């Protein structure tokens, strides 16, 4: 099983992950992505969904028109693992291609 | 503009909409769909996204693995309109095909 990151590891990882922060009230990381419209927001979600399914690691996410709020955590590990950091990095890369804020 | 339903119209529409209820604390309708897995949940969302985009009427929704929580309202009308009922009906039809609970 992928191991839960220590506080120091988590903070180091967040330093390199633009836009992500620790989620209030639980051990998870969050980011809100804002796109130009629903087409872009759902296009982003679709690309991420394929990655999530392939790696069997899925986000919690909420979409309202052009925004996508994401929370990542590894339930089996009871916290944040490298798998969350990897998925966050993949999301940032896709969002950057789409010109998200 | 599509007109906001009256309380009586809203309640009549909800009678025929299996699984939907009035959203607590705001004038909107909600349903949580539960699928077998992420593949089905996101497949559902993808079909609904195409309908939403075509009709220019979009849901607020949250996906966690195999569940999709939906809230529908018509922001321009300040409440629930026929457009929300139509989207809810379309969601129910797609979910039923997929065998969702």
TrEMBL record, chains A, B:
Keywords: Lyase. CDD domains: PCD_DCoH_subfamily_b. One of its GO terms (molecular function) is 4-alpha-hydroxytetrahydrobiopterin dehydratase activity. It catalyses: (4aS,6R)-4a-hydroxy-L-erythro-5,6,7,8-tetrahydrobiopterin = (6R)-L-erythro-6,7-dihydrobiopterin + H2O. It is an enzyme of class 4 (lyase). InterPro entries: PCD_sf, Pterin_deHydtase. It comes from the Bacteria. SUPFAM superfamilies: PCD-like. Coiled coil: none annotated. Its EC number is 4.2.1.96. HAMAP family: Pterin_4_alpha. PANTHER family: PTERIN-4-ALPHA-CARBINOLAMINE DEHYDRATASE. Belongs to the pterin-4-alpha-carbinolamine dehydratase family. This is Putative pterin-4-alpha-carbinolamine dehydratase.
């Amino acid at each position: 099983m992928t191991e839960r990151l220590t506080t120091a590891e988590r903070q180091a990882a967040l330093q390199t992950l633009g836009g992500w922060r620790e989620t209030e009230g639980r051990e998870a990381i969050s980011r809100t992505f804002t796109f130009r419209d629903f087409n872009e927001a759902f296009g982003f979600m679709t690309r991420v969904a394929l990655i999530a399914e392939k790696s069997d690691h899925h986000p919690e996410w909420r979409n309202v028109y052009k925004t996508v709020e994401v929370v990542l955590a590894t339930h089996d590990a009871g916290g944040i693992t490298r798998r969350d950091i990897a998925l966050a990095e993949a999301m940032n890369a896709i969002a950057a291609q789409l010109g998200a804020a």
